[in-house]
Automatic annotation (TrEMBL):
Protein name: Carboxylic ester hydrolase
Annotated InterPro entries: AB_hydrolase_fold, AChE-related_enzymes, CarbesteraseB, Carboxylesterase_B_AS, Cholinesterase
Annotated Carboxylesterase type B domain residues: 28-530
Keyword Ion transport: no
Enzyme class: hydrolase
Keywords (A to Z) from UniProt: Disulfide bond, Glycoprotein, Hydrolase, Neurotransmitter degradation, Serine esterase, Signal
One GO MF term attached to the UniProt entry: acetylcholinesterase activity
EC identifiers of the protein: 3.1.1.-
First and last residue of the signal peptide: 1-16
Coiled coil: none
One Pfam assignment: COesterase
Organism field: Oedothorax gibbosus
UniProt catalytic activity: acetylcholine + H2O = choline + acetate + H(+)
Active-site residues, record numbering mapped to chain: S216 (acyl-ester intermediate), E340 (charge relay system), H456 (charge relay system)
């Protein structure tokens, strides 16, 4: 613990008078490269925000375009209404989750949203923040209420963009053919970033000050764009909440990806190879394929993963990070929540953990059994090392039950997939990355047990301002803390420094000085990263520079992100 910083005094953002773009009584107007659109005004207390919702950036990926790389949206004539959020892309969810989309999915989902503060004519263009949602590459959507960008745009004085991308088989299936090459989801994101470059000035945004930010699988995506040669120059800053692709089980070799596709097709009743197989899969109803993916396993699973070996991702992610491919001219801010692993336990080990029950007391044998199941994608020798590291020092008998065993299972899960990948990627960033450590969250899952702590995803409502506008579920302290985080994120998007006018007060994270900013409503302070030691002593030696084939059989499990 270094010194106390009262962030509430350091993160202020100067607000100037704003005027909605091209004011019209019917709604704000904007000209894009594909046509004219009319949005709508939304109020954030007494402030106007111009919202443009459901703007097409890609052709509907239906019929022959299913599984293909995206094509830019076709131009339209006349004035197009942009006043309704886009539908979710086809998806399934392995866990009941309060924030998930409630509207019906559609394959015609390659649309994005823009929220722009009212701005004065002649004012300087605003920083742009492009959100990539999480959900393990299998679920999530920009129509989720928690991702509404109006409060972030208003309080942060930034232009906010969120874009859908295809999920699961629709976004990551790789048949090894020109029309189904894999990574369609990442190319969807790339196309959205290109749209932002070409159009965001019409909304008052600065195309030279674009920050991409995301949580969980969204953070994984951000970490891939950092090393993709195709994404170079499309953004100036990168913000990763809970994760990076610095993990050997988050991407597939081409041959593994194609094997998965063949197995998936067989389950769908589509035999054969190449065109014959794809024609059959394209003839299936999207709901049937989504349901089939849901049935691949009884546990939370990421079956289809990003594939390396193409133009977007030429080499495995860890190889890219280790070989110095991270750009030196992109500012990086990243971090994790204190209890990253807890949220996944009821989904991945439902016979042991429940959202509506207390943390179970386990014997060491039970804890080892759960841990070996959770990490079955790793070699036995590596899992032995994990079990020994986490459980050998606990002061309990072999037969005695101890709730701390369950806590250590959650720690191992969070360290492996979130804390340590964040730490290891930060060490490779030459531009001086800053790390945060979130230690506060309101209860955000109804009836959830207190043992969840500060779980995965708990930062997202604060970043998008839910506690500011929802006084029923959140306290005034929550609302103030949300405002502090919004201003920090916006300051970073503005000039790369989360704390306004105090760039030196949040030092860069390095291996020699693994400092992080602990964030909570009472007092944020610089600390030594609490998980650095376990990352350095254990997980660093279990991650290899070249990821192993992360995958193949249907019963192999991966953590969701």
């Amino acid at each position: 613990m270094r010194w106390i910083l009262f962030v509430m005094f350091a993160v202020g953002v100067a607000h100037a008078c704003r005027e909605p773009p091209l004011f019209q009584e019917a709604g704000p107007l904007a000209e894009t490269t594909t046509g004219s659109i009319v949005g709508k005004y939304v109020k954030v207390f007494d402030t106007d925000v111009a919202a443009f919702l459901g703007i097409p950036f890609g052709e509907p990926p239906v019929g022959q375009l299913r599984f293909s790389l995206p094509k830019p949206a076709a131009p339209w004539t006349g004035l197009r209404a942009a006043q309704t959020k886009p539908p979710p892309c086809p998806q399934w969810s392995p866990v009941p989750f309060a924030w998930l989309p409630t509207t019906s999915p559609s394959e015609d989902c390659l649309q994005l949203n823009v929220w722009a503060p009212a701005r004065c004519s002649g004012g300087r263009p605003l920083p742009v923040m492009v959100w990539i949602h999480g959900g393990a590459f299998i679920m999530g959507s920009t129509d989720m209420d928690v991702y509404d960008g109006a409060v972030l745009a208003s309080y942060g004085d930034v232009v906010v963009v969120s874009a859908n991308y295809r999920l699961g088989a629709f976004g990551l299936l790789n048949a090894g053919t020109e029309d189904a090459p894999g990574n369609a989801a990442l190319y969807d994101q790339l196309l959205a970033l290109q749209w932002v470059r070409d159009n965001i000035a019409s909304f008052g945004g600065d195309p030279d000050r674009v920050t991409i930010f995301g949580e969980s699988a969204g953070a994984w995506s951000v970490s891939l764009h950092l090393v993709s040669p195709l994404s170079k120059g499309l953004f100036k800053r990168a913000l990763m909440q809970s994760g990076s692709m610095y993990h050997p089980a988050t991407s597939d070799a081409p041959e593994v990806a194609k094997q998965k596709t063949t197995e998936f097709a067989k389950l769908a009743g589509c035999g054969g190879q190449g065109d014959e197989m794809l024609k059959c899969l394209r003839g299936k109803d999207f709901e049937e394929l989504a349901k089939l993916e849901n049935g691949l396993t009884t546990r939370s699973v990421v079956y289809f993963l990003p594939t390396y070996g193409d133009s977007f991702l030429p080499v495995p992610p860890i190889t890219a990070y280790e070989s110095g491919q991270l750009p030196a001219d992109v500012d990086v801010l990243s971090g994790t929540t204190k209890d990253e692993g807890t949220l996944f336990l009821p989904a991945m080990a439902p016979e042991v953990f429940r959202f509506d029950a207390a943390l179970p007391a386990l014997t060491r044998q039970q804890a080892e059994s759960v841990t070996r199941t959770l990490f079955q994608m790793m070699p036995k020798q590596a899992v032995d090392a994990v079990v020994d590291y986490y459980f050998n020092n606990l002061n309990a008998t072999e037969d005695g039950k101890e709730p701390e065993y369950a806590r250590l299972v959650a720690d191992a899960l969070g360290d492996s997939f979130f804390h340590c990948p964040t730490v290891f990627l930060a060490e490779k960033v030459a531009s001086g990355p800053r790390l945060y450590w979130l230690t506060y969250a309101a209860e955000f899952i109804p009836s959830a047990a207190s043992w969840l702590g500060v779980p995965h995803f708990s930062d997202v409502p604060y970043v998008f301002g839910a506690p500011i506008v929802d006084g029923t579920r959140y306290s005034p302290e929550d609302g103030k803390f949300s405002g502090d985080l919004i201003r920090m994120w916006a300051n970073f998007a503005r000039d790369g420094h989360p704390l306004k006018d105090d760039a030196g007060s949040w030092p860069a994270f390095t291996h020699e000085d693994p400092v992080a900013m602990e964030l909570n409503p009472r007092a944020s302070q610089l600390i030594t990263h609490p998980r650095f030691e376990v990352c350095d002593r254990l997980w660093r030696h279990l991650y290899t520079p070249t990821p192993s084939a992360s995958s193949a059989p249907l019963n192999q499990e991966h953590i969701e992100a």
